[in-house]
Amino acid sequence: MGKAPTMDDSPGEEHAAFTQWAVSHGIKIKGIAPARFPGRRLGMIATRDIEENEIMLSIPVSLMLTIDSIPESFVSLFPAETSIHGVLAAFLTHGDPGLLAELDAWRSVWPDWAEFESSMPVFWPARLRRSNSSVVGRGDSVSEGLTFLPPSISGLWDSFEKLAGPEDYEYETRYQNLLAQQEKRLQDAWKHVLSVFPETDWKAFAYNWAIINSRSFYYVSPGKDEPEDWNDAIGMVPYADYFNHVDDAACDVTFNGKKYTFRATRRYDKGEEIYMSYGSHSNDFLLVEYGFYLDNNPSDGVYLDDIILKDLTPSEKEELGGQDCLGNFEITASGADTNTVAAAGLKYMDRQDWREYVAGASEKGLDARKTADIIGGWVAKYLQECEVTINCLSEGSTESEAEKEKLDSILARWKQIQQLCETAVNAVNAIAQ
């Protein structure tokens, strides 16, 4: 189990001051505190033994930073299409100094700009963050050359050319083209804040945008429907943002409209780090949105869409689309998802047999060995991409130590993906035995 906290674990005077502020403002903290963990960021530690079902933390909604806690006179300055994320970031940048002063104790413990610039690909130099985005950052030009970031992030490949032009059958992708989507959200917010505050400093706004992006919790205004873009169902929760993420955290998080509550779902020993779950996300998603990824992530996966779509005829795409099986072809350490298995079966099965199989009515015509071989061929193309990129990253030179740290992190991620692909193929083959 974890060790008891020592003086070296103390995060600093500003964190002690923020804890005092939190308690004085009605946040209930029981048996936990922020602490430093060697080689990692700040996190939450158990300062005593915590029993199962014990409430560790509760924060009233009145202390949250939300669209409802910002003066309407400020919100109304922005175009109607401005994201809630953008308005919150604009408030932190241009809000009333008196109101912002109330957040000083909280803001003093936030990470600095250098941490975001180092960890989040959206802020990396153009050469390192090459993607299929149509958005060009400030002072950047479209870069060419090796695509360092994985395809789920960049939308690009180095070992083969993906299909060009619009697809015959469009579908909503899941956890793909992540950087392009994030860049668009950021640039749209930047455009809207400039329309109201033309002299806005880019770095100041981008920093506050990243704070909101990486430290927000679920929040929807009372009486309102969830926003069309789930990225706008957000609010910031003081003190709760110390929790780090693991997929299967033993921490139950609830929000009843009046307060956020964090409850232990098992016993913790004094000195253990206490995590919460940000949701079941792939490592590529975690890297783009939060600037980190996990060594062991049961929700990790990669997508074969660009590979499989090149191998499908128009009629096969139509068939998959008609059965709601087109796209988001994912592989994980446990094997291939149902859409990928369906696409593989379509390559050799009689159409009527295949339709009955997808509907769950019959497995006539299904050949597990053929399915495994087809999926294995698709994964082999991803493994080829891994080999090409890993070799280039391993042999390449860098201009600075800061760039080397970024590339080392990406290299480690590619090795994860390589291992995931190999494990997925083994899992698919095991089913075929």
From TrEMBL:
The UniProt entry, under InterPro entries, shows: SET_dom, SET_dom_sf, SETD3_SETD6_MTase, SETD4_SET
Q: Which PROSITE patterns match?
A: SET
Source taxon at top rank? Eukaryota
Q: Which residues form the SET domain?
A: 30-279
Molecular function terms from GO = protein-lysine N-methyltransferase activity
Which protein, by its recorded name, is this?
SET domain-containing protein
